């Protein structure tokens, strides 16, 4: 348990998290200069004043109660000095002071190979299916899925990961005891049993709108890349994608119908912000994974037997009649090839079983059920 009297780094970071909203540059700079414990002492003593920080909010009993609440929930406090601290958070302009973590997985280890998968709350059935399929496919490739636990795409991503026993992390905008939305209690409960719930907000903090925008930077940082499945032009998931680009993480989107407003934000991000297009888990893995190891297979159309023909052979095959016979001279005149080239092509087609001769100088296509190029 954290002891207030000790005023160690962990205690101080927990206390400081109550004195101002996350993302304060003034508090970041002070902690970098003095350390969390001395920063807290200076604030309490009045020798340090920081923009956006209210020292009078400090109450030792409140901090003790925060810790007791976390312990009752089976949660823990993780700080930068801990082995579990996700190293990617250092890429943020203003990293969190601490993380409240609830769940069995090691967040630092899980996020070493991870994807932030986000999108519209009012997702279509198409978007939800794609999100679930992407999450499941990525988990099967060893990625953890990071999302926000919200309705729509977030929920589909978490469920896709859970369906294949994959690792998933839900980042909350409120306290570790204020899981939101409440109607997702079953889903979030399952995540706490097998994955992790994470927040930078102290217990009891309400998940208000501005805090969702703040937590989006954590989703972007915890993922090695961000994929947006569906998003309108004002979707909060585009905010997450913007944070990802700010810290030089790859951003990809899933295309949708051009008539769907739920995909308009995705298409905008491709056109205006240079996002990549992805259509399946293999393409996401190639974009975000290990270079040379997570390669996606090259997609090709159906390969047909005639694809093996050289251009002259294909021209002659296409000119061959189905029933009557055509002689070499007629084929040469129709194709513009010289007779020797025509005969050579016919020899190849005959050997493949694609052309038959009348025994003289006439040729036609072989019956469809016998020829290789059918």
Number of helices: 15
- Number of strand elements: 12
Approximate strand percentage: 5-15%
What's the SSE pattern? Answer: HHHHEEHEHEHEHEHEHEHEHHEHHEE
CATH topology of the largest domain: Rossmann fold
What does the main sheet amount to? Answer: 9 strands, mixed
End-to-end C-alpha gap:
75 Å
Structural class: alpha/beta
| Sequence stretches where pLDDT stays below 50 over 5 or more residues | 1-5
CATH class of the largest domain: Alpha Beta
- Cα gyration radius (Å): 31 Å
CATH architecture of the largest domain: 3-Layer(aba) Sandwich
Give the overall silhouette. elongated
> What share of the residues lie within helices?
40-55%
What strand order characterises the main sheet?
A: 1-2-6-5-4-3-7-8-9
Number of domains: 3
What is this structure, in a nutshell?
It is built from 15 helices and 12 strands.
Structure write-up:
The protein is α/β, with parallel strands linked by helices. It folds into three domains: 4-68, no CATH class; 87-288, Rossmann fold, CATH 3.40.50; 305-365, Orthogonal Bundle (Arc Repressor Mutant, subunit A). The chain is 42% helix and 11% strand. The chain has helices at 9-16, 25-34, 36-45, 60-73, 107-110, 125-140, 153-163, 185-194, 209-222, 236-246, 264-273, 281-288, 311-319, 328-335, 339-352, and strands spanning 75-78, 99-102, 114-118, 144-147, 168-171, 196-199, 226-228, 251-253, 276-277, 326-327, 355-357, 362-365. The strands form two sheets. It has a nine-stranded mixed sheet with strand order 1-2-6-5-4-3-7-8-9, with helices on both faces. The longest helix has 16 residues, at 125-140. Mean pLDDT is 92; it is low at 1-5.
């Amino acid at each position: 348990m954290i002891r207030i009297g000790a005023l160690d780094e962990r205690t101080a970071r927990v206390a400081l998290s109550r004195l101002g909203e996350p993302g304060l540059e003034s508090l970041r700079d002070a902690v970098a200069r003095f350390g969390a414990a001395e920063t807290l002492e200076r604030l309490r003593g009045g020798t340090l004043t920081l923009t956006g920080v209210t020292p009078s909010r400090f109450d030792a009993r409140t901090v003790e109660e925060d810790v007791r609440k976390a312990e009752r929930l089976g949660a823990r406090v993780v700080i930068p000095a801990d082995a579990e601290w996700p190293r990617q958070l250092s890429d943020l302009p203003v990293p969190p002071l601490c993380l409240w973590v609830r769940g069995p997985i090691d967040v630092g280890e899980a996020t070493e190979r991870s994807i932030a998968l986000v999108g519209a709350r009012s997702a279509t059935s198409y978007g939800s299916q794609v999100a679930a399929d992407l999450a499941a496919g990525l988990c099967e490739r060893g990625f953890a899925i990071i999302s926000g636990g919200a309705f729509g795409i977030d929920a589909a991503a978490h469920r896709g990961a859970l369906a294949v026993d994959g690792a998933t992390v839900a980042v909350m905008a409120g306290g570790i005891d204020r899981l939101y939305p409440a109607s997702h209690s079953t889903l979030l409960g399952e995540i706490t049993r097998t994955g992790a719930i994470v927040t930078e907000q102290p217990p009891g903090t309400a998940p208000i709108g501005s805090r969702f925008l703040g937590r989006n930077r954590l989703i972007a940082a915890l993922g090695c890349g961000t994929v947006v499945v569906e998003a309108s032009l004002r979707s909060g998931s585009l905010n997450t994608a913007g944070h990802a680009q700010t810290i030089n993480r790859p951003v990809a989107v899933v295309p949708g119908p051009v008539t769907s407003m739920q995909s308009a934000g995705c298409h905008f991000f491709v056109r205006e912000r240079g996002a990549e297009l992805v259509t399946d888990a293999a393409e996401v893995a190639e974009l975000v994974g290990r270079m040379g190891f997570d390669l996606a297979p090259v997609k090709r159309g159906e390969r047909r037997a005639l694809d093996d023909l050289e251009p002259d052979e294909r021209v002659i095959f296409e000119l061959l009649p189905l029933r009557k016979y055509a002689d070499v001279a007629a084929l040469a005149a129709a194709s513009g090839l010289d007779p020797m080239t025509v005969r050579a092509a016919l020899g190849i087609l005959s050997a493949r079983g694609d052309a038959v001769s009348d025994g003289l100088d006439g040729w036609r296509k072989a019956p469809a059920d016998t020829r290789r190029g059918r």
